[in-house]
Amino acid sequence: MMTNIRKNLCKYPGGTIIIGKWQNKKYHLLKELGSGANGVVYLAKESSRHVALKMSMDSYSITSEVNVLKALAKVQGYALGPFLYEMDDWDVGSKKIHFYVMEYINGPDLLSFVSQKGRVWAGIMVLQLLDILERLHKQGWIFGDLKPENLIVTGPTPHIRCIDVGGTTMNGRAVKEFTEFYDRGYWELGSRKADIQYDLFSTAMLIINLYYPKRFVKKEGGIKQLQRMISLKDDLIHLEPILNKALHGEYQSALAMKSELLAYLSDSPVRSKQRQSPMQTRQLGKKKKRGSFLETMAVILVTLSLYAFYIYSRVF
Questions:
Q1: Do 30 and 60 fall within a single domain?
Q2: Domain identity same for 132 and 29
Q3: CB under 8 Å to 12, separation ≥6 — which residues?
Q4: Which residues 6+ apart lie within 8 Å of 120 measured at CB?
């Protein structure tokens, strides 16, 4: 209740003008982009540029998120999160609102992008995400609130950017923010301790979400319901060994999960079939016709080509 009250104190209509107390810069709020447990994010205009502005009544949460953005900026060659511009306060009546200003990243969220472009893009987007998580984890941070809404795809070469670091937590601490569907605690498959396995569990749930865009509610704890939902989608059946390892917390790094996913995408459907259990083979037996074989090969080739182009564009 207290969180909602604090968040509502930061609700302002488009057209509101904010003047920073210390930097004396003027920001015109255009519209609300989203809100979370710790504040509200707006699209704003400062001089001739558009920016994202997050405000909160909680100075600690604002300072913490600013520190995360500064840490992400130290990862050379990769823009893991928005660029931080400045931090300031706004005195409005008897209230003091804390805010920071960052780069506005424009584009569809991950789920919308895959829906628009086709699931052939799902593989490359997840590979990119695992690249980001590997670098984030090496800096000692866990993303925490990993979900499609927090992942924006920008271009012209499509690549993922993280837009909300409100849930990003130092490794070993308690997760600050989470969304139930992607939370291993919700599914009774682990704690809410911020660790590498927490992010990789969320990544597995994100992959499942790409094939169940409306998500689904928990009807029972544990792994059974998730395995059942995986078994209903042919593409997820192929990924079941990788998803199961992530859901059970068996990967020690994002790089390890990425390597297995890349190997799967590089592999032929024939060898993939050889690795399946007898039950999986029976489930797929009548579906592996020549048409689906050629379609699968086309998806693999396109996905690997797109990922290679992404790596090339980041290097050169």
A1: yes
A2: no
A3: 29, 42
A4: 299, 302, 303, 306
Residues spanned by the domain of 185? 110-295
Report yes or no on 303 lying in a domain: no
User: What are the catalytic residues?
Assistant: 145
Q: Is residue 309 part of a domain?
A: no
Neighbouring-strand partners of residue 50: 45
pLDDT by 10s per residue, the chain, length 316:
445 556 678 999 999 999 999 999 999 999 999 887 778 999 999 999 999 999 999 999 999 999 989 888 877 556 678 999 999 999 998 899 999 999 999 999 999 999 999 988 999 999 999 999 999 999 899 999 999 999 999 988 898 999 888 889 999 999 988 999 999 999 999 999 999 999 999 999 999 999 999 999 999 878 999 999 999 999 899 999 999 999 999 999 999 999 999 998 876 443 444 444 444 545 544 444 444 434 444 455 555 555 555 555 554 4
Site of tokens 């799902």: 122
Let me know if residue 71 belongs to a domain: yes
